[in-house]
Amino acid sequence: MNIDFGARTREAKEINEKSWSIVGSIVKGETPQDRIIKRCVIATGDTAFSDLMRFNNDPVNAGGDTAFSDLMRFNNDPVNAGIEAIRSGAPIFTDIRMAQVGITKRGHKCEIRCVLDVGLEIAEKTGVTRTSAGFMALEDELNGSIIVIGNAPSAALTVCRMIEKGLHPALLVATPVGFVNAAESKEIVRALDVPSITCIGTRGGTPVAVAVVNELVEIALKK
Residues 6 or more apart from 92 whose CB is under 8 A from it? Predict the structure, then answer.
């Protein structure tokens, strides 16, 4: 049975199981990457997301139906990196509160923090976005963490620059959405030597990033 941490009533559980059954007929395979793709499809209601993923730099774990994995990228063994980080209780830092709220609080001991809670002075002084400023303010706490960016390309670019200067998160989930720097920022993420999960192009969004993390939590519980 697939877990939906928000499905607690009988009806909710029935809906969850039916959703997984429908998506399972579209996205074949049961590898961890396949499961992440399926949860992203369910989260968005968009079967095109099965074409937004691909297994990159991970030939050992690149199972499943590659016809459904063209535009989502798994770089540098991110599933195992994410599982290890979740099991060790690594902190999770999100770009916006929607992601902080959406990530399940069950099944792990990771603290989930939103960077919008800090960095206001940096934003006012430098003029950068508040999400960028938040990550800058928390730089000393980001090593070994899970960074989740579902909305803000500016934050993704800031984190990329920080990584280029030596920051090393355990996992970077970056699925920012939009027409300004979203596609470009994810391309830069994929060029970095850190475990990352991204999607190609302007599509993405917080529901996708949250779905990725929540499925990693489920995989960490079951594996």
Answer: 103, 110, 111, 112, 113, 145, 146, 147, 148, 213
Nearby residues of 202 by Cβ (< 8 Å), 6 or more positions away: 177, 178, 179, 182, 183
Domain ranges of the chain: 72-222
Tokens standing for 169? 């998160």
Q: Which of 127, 163, 143, 48 is nearest to 93 (CA)?
A: 143
One digit per residue, the tens of pLDDT, for the chain of length 223 reads 455 555 555 666 676 677 666 676 677 777 888 888 888 888 777 666 666 554 444 433 333 333 334 567 999 999 999 999 999 999 999 999 999 999 999 999 999 999 999 999 999 999 999 999 999 999 999 999 999 999 999 999 999 999 999 999 999 999 999 999 999 999 999 999 999 999 988 888 999 999 999 999 999 998 6
Topology, domain 72-222: Rossmann fold (3.40.50)
Half-sphere exposure in the Cβ direction for 163 (13 Å, CA): 23
Residue 197: strand, helix, or coil: strand
